[in-house]
Amino acid sequence: MDYVMGAVNAGAMADLENPGGALSDDQIDLGVLPDLLGYNLRSAQLALQRSLSKAIPGGDPGSGIFGLLVLCAGNPGISQIQVARHLTIDKASVVALVDRGEESGWLQRRRAPDDRRRHGLFITPEGNAHLAQMKLRMRNCEHSFDALFAPEERQQLLTLLQRIRP
Amino acid sequence: MDYVMGAVNAGAMADLENPGGALSDDQIDLGVLPDLLGYNLRSAQLALQRSLSKAIPGGDPGSGIFGLLVLCAGNPGISQIQVARHLTIDKASVVALVDRGEESGWLQRRRAPDDRRRHGLFITPEGNAHLAQMKLRMRNCEHSFDALFAPEERQQLLTLLQRIRP
DNA sequence: TATTGTTATACTCTATAACTATA
DNA sequence: TATAGTTATAGAGTATAACAATA
Lengths: 166, 166
Description:
Two copies of one chain form a homodimer. The first copy, chain A, has 166 residues and is mainly α. The first copy, chain A, has helices at 2-17, 37-55, 64-74, 80-86, 91-103, 125-146, 151-164, and strands at residues 78-79, 107-111, 119-123. Chain A has a three-stranded antiparallel β-sheet with strand order 1-3-2. The structure holds a DNA duplex (23 and 23 nucleotides).
């Protein structure tokens, strides 16, 4: 119950204390937010994402073209529905992604001979070259965040995050 | 260099081994993805977000109406630009959020008497009631993820995530 | 019937740029 | 000049639903 009523009471109290003046920026009360997994996940991801998208056009790992190319490079002939499953997005969302990759010349759809419903995805030499470049930039960018963690801390962060995955 | 070439070589090898047949779902090679902070952050957040948005309409903590109401409850008279700073989004993105909150009757804009450029934001009794309900649902939903962590693990996860914040 | 891919559509979140009113 | 808020616009990213081709 404390959890639920806390901010409400704080609000009522602050209301009496602050009938209209400006609030200084460092006295802002974040309430329950800092204790929520969702809030902290989102803040962290936004920070990393902004840094990545400055360093790498389309460089959000796991969404966007980067994750797709990694999967095609490691699993030639992977189907779109498998991409969807492993990037945890809908198969319909994969279509536009693959379209982009194909238009850019980084991958190809090839109708699978053994099951003509399936499109096998194959990375091209241009795709591999592009991916290698993206990986370099990605590594450099992630490296700038490594300073925040001791090596075993970084690993534990990854381990804990992976438990949340479906 | 291993880092960069790893998946490329794996790709070339797999290409020889797999000239067109289906790949089984559990032999998919995720390449460098599992070692990337960005990929793991995104997967974890997607998983949590999907769970939350089933339990709570508009319930992504920190984005959306929830974070806004928490800030208004704890800091009556907070300005929109302060909301933007603490939710780490642009001031332009705050406008639509506050519009929604005002239309729903959960908060009010009040022109600040000491600086007529500023809109102070104030939560309404209806907003407080709604927020209390959202917090209950949020707690229940986050609680279902707590099973994944020992108490000190959860705390360390939060601590590590907070280091990434700008 | 079930699966793979596709199209069409819409919604949320965020950003940028240009504007206003106030300071 | 600078700041707070607004408007207009655009771009990701994702989802759902309905559909075609194939199994």
